[in-house]
Write a structure and sequence with these properties.
The protein folds into two domains: about 70 residues, no CATH class; about 80 residues, no CATH class. Helices cover about 50% and strands about 10% of the residues. It has seven helices and four strands; from the N terminus they run ααββαβαααβα. A two-stranded antiparallel sheet has the order 1-2. Helix 1 packs antiparallel against helix 7.
């Protein structure tokens, strides 16, 4: 049996979630980067099941849910609700510093954004020094959740059961009507 209407509802839901997530990243000035460009979905349909899978860079879940800091857990930040925490011992040591600026490859977020502070004498600080300072601050304070993906996903999910029920009903009616004409 062909579930054309159900497929349309699921694909529409997936496209809404991806588009709204990208829009949220753009609002937070995180758009046009690797995370933004990696947001997509796959839809796999077999005879008796549907599989809708959302894809993004691995670190997207940390941006979405936030990360608790090692030394400060302020309850006013939504990072306090996250299951992730710096200093848990599960991640790569020095990974955050390397993401900000990797001295070996001379690449990283700081270099890409051309972001540099000046010291007390007005000289530019090295990317390596800045990456250490910023990484230490993030490690201690954590990252606030921005829910760029969770918010549109949950919003779209609210109406999905009703829309799926109506689409399934239409597909069944079409199968009965077109089945009788054969």
């Amino acid at each position: 049996m062909d579930f054309k209407n159900v497929d349309e509802i699921l694909l529409s839901f997936a496209q809404y979630v991806v588009d709204a997530s990208k829009e949220n990243l753009t609002k937070d000035k995180k758009g046009d980067g690797d995370l933004y460009n990696s947001l997509s979905y796959t839809f796999d349909k077999s005879q008796d099941q549907f599989l809708l899978d959302f894809l993004m860079e691995d670190y997207g879940v940390f941006v979405d849910k936030g990360v608790k800091g090692k030394t400060s857990t302020y309850p006013e930040t939504s990072a306090a609700l996250s299951q992730f925490q710096y200093g848990s011992g599960t991640g790569e040591k020095g990974g955050l510093t390397k993401a900000l600026y990797n001295a070996e490859t001379k690449k990283g977020w700081l270099k890409k954004k051309k972001f540099q502070w000046r010291d007390e004498r007005g000289r530019f600080m090295s990317y390596e020094s800045m990456s250490y300072i910023i990484a230490r601050s993030i490690y201690n304070k954590g990252l606030k959740a921005n829910l760029f993906f969770t918010t549109p996903f949950e919003f779209g999910l609210r109406n999905l059961p009703i829309n799926l029920k109506d689409a399934f009903k239409l597909d069944i009616e079409n199968a009965i009507i077109f089945g009788e004409k054969k």
